[in-house]
């Protein structure tokens, strides 16, 4: 004959069943969906604290769960902004480009375009290295001025375009000097003439004119060389290369 469960055993079994049911209830409880304004505030607070991953998580929840909210465009931008502040420029660029493809006329679109340009600008390489990122930055600053001429960032974009142009001109001059040292005046002249033609208002123009004059002297093109030295002495007489041009002209007499 099988003994009946004792009252204590029945209580223990009942407790286990309740506990098991409770665990299942806890395990299946849905995560509450916070409203977009609350998620946005949390994300901003995390961004200020430089907790970039946590900030992105909250901004992504807005984009994914509240795509039609007024906070969604700004949240998408701030995902990129968190990457930008973290120095993850490639990821920031992707987010900024996505924003501009969806919201090209949004009220902060000019800021996003500016940040996109800055994501390239902040990666510019030393003069002796490839300047592809510099060119990209310049292109995006120009797009900012073209698409958002009234933007508060337009003035700074113009200044940074000048910096980019100067950097590209420096690279061309560096390459030209390399060709001179390698005994290739033809290739050097092509680079130097390109600088004079395409980057006439950059700081490397005095040195460029002087080096171009020297290349012409070496090729027997004395008249062209003298003309360049005269221009250099007249327009840039206050510079080191302007003074050297004056001395070179005196030596030609």
Walk me through this protein's architecture.
It contains 12 helices and no strands. With 253 residues, the chain is mainly alpha-helical. Helix 2 runs antiparallel to helix 3 and helix 10 (205-218) packs antiparallel against helix 11 (222-235).
What key attributes describe this structure?
single chain; mainly alpha; 75% helix
In brief:
Helices cover 75% and strands 0% of the residues.
General shape: elongated
Q: How many DSSP E strands?
A: 0
Tell me about the biggest sheet? Answer: none
Overall radius of gyration: 32 Å
The overall average pLDDT, rounded, is: 92
Spatial gap, N to C terminus? 133 Å
Portion in beta strands = under 5%
List the total number of helices.
12
**Uncertain segments:** none
The share of residues in helices is over 70%
The arrangement of helices and strands along the chain is: HHHHHHHHHHHH
Class from helix and strand fractions: mainly alpha
């Amino acid at each position: 004959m099988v003994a009946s469960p004792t009252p204590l055993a029945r209580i223990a079994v009942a407790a286990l069943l309740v506990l098991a049911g409770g665990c299942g209830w806890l395990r299946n409880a849905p995560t509450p969906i916070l409203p977009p304004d609350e998620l946005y505030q949390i994300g901003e607070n995390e961004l200020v604290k430089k907790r970039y991953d946590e900030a992105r998580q909250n901004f992504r929840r807005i984009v994914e769960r509240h795509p039609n909210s007024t906070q969604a465009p700004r949240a998408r931008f701030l995902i990129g902004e968190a990457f930008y502040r973290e120095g993850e420029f490639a990821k920031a660029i992707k987010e900024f480009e996505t924003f501009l493809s969806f919201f090209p006329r949004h009220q902060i679109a000019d800021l996003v375009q500016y940040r996109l340009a800055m994501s390239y600008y902040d990666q510019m390489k030393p003069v002796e290295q490839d300047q592809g990122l510099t060119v990209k930055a310049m292109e995006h600053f120009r797009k900012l001025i073209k698409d958002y001429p009234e933007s508060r960032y337009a003035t700074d974009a113009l200044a940074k375009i000048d910096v980019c142009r100067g950097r590209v001109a420096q690279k061309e001059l560096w390459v030209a000097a390399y060709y001179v040292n390698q005994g290739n005046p033809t290739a050097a002249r092509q680079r130097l003439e390109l600088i004079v033609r395409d980057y006439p208002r950059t700081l490397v123009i005095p040195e460029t004119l002087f080096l171009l004059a020297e290349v012409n002297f070496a090729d027997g093109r004395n008249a062209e060389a003298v003309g360049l030295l005269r221009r250099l002495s007249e327009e840039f007489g206050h510079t080191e290369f302007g003074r050297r041009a004056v001395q070179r002209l005196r030596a030609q007499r």
